[in-house]
Amino acid sequence: MARSNTQETVTVLRHWQEDVPDDRLAHLIRDAGRVLTKSLQTRLAEHSISFGHWSFLRILWVTEGLTQRELSEQAGLMEPTTYTALKAMEANGLIERRQLNGNRKNIHIYLTQKGRDLKETLIPLAETINERAVSGIDENDLRATRRTLLAIISNLAEANE
């Protein structure tokens, strides 16, 4: 699996260096994100965690007890997608659903101990991938890239208001 990811990454890199070096920034950002995602997917799979569950784990490591709707909003996903992911996470023993104070309408999502324990393994794994991704890049360039990406997000948020 790692071999095919490496080949795909090389293909993406060659495409940008040789075929379309001045193509739209949106495409470059998408491809960079895709390569980072693939790298993380491969590493998460080694721990039997799907990439689709990663966002939910990250959110729940910070704030447990969210409703399914709140979790969907924070993850930026539709509720049916969240429902399917949570069902699988529950089957894998990562989360549990609870009704609080007899309120049958809202189901709150909590990590199990197994779900909490994954944080110690998966966060360093993600950090290693991020460190590898930016290795050899000047710190000033990284700060400028971060400022630029945040400005793009801000510009588009204002345009959509």
Characterization of this structure:
- This protein is mainly alpha-helical.
- It has helices at residues 2-19, 25-45, 51-62, 68-75, 79-91, 113-134, 139-159, and strands at 66-67, 95-99, 107-111.
- The protein folds into 2 domains: 1-46, no CATH class; 51-159, Winged helix-like DNA-binding domain superfamily/Winged helix DNA-binding domain (Arc Repressor Mutant, subunit A), CATH 1.10.10.
- Strands 1-3-2 form a 3-stranded antiparallel β-sheet.
- β2 (95-99) and β3 form a beta hairpin.
- α1 runs antiparallel to α2 and α2 (25-45) crosses α6.
- The longest helix has 22 residues, at 113-134.
- The chain starts with a helix and ends with a helix.
- The mean pLDDT is 87.
Quick description:
The protein has 161 residues and is mainly alpha-helical. It is 71% helix and 7% strand.
Q: What's the helix count?
A: 7
Q: Widest sheet: strand order?
A: 1-3-2
Biggest sheet features: 3 strands, antiparallel
- Mean pLDDT across all residues, rounded? 87
Ends: how far apart?
A: 42 Å
Structural class: mainly alpha
Estimate percent helicity: over 70%
CATH superfamily of the largest domain: Winged helix-like DNA-binding domain superfamily/Winged helix DNA-binding domain
Q: In terms of per-residue confidence, which ranges show pLDDT below 50 for 5 or more consecutive residues? A: none
Number of domains: 2
**Count of β-strands:** 3
- So, CATH architecture of the largest domain? Orthogonal Bundle
Q: What is the C-alpha radius of gyration, as a whole number of Å?
A: 19 Å
Beta-strand residue fraction:
5-15%
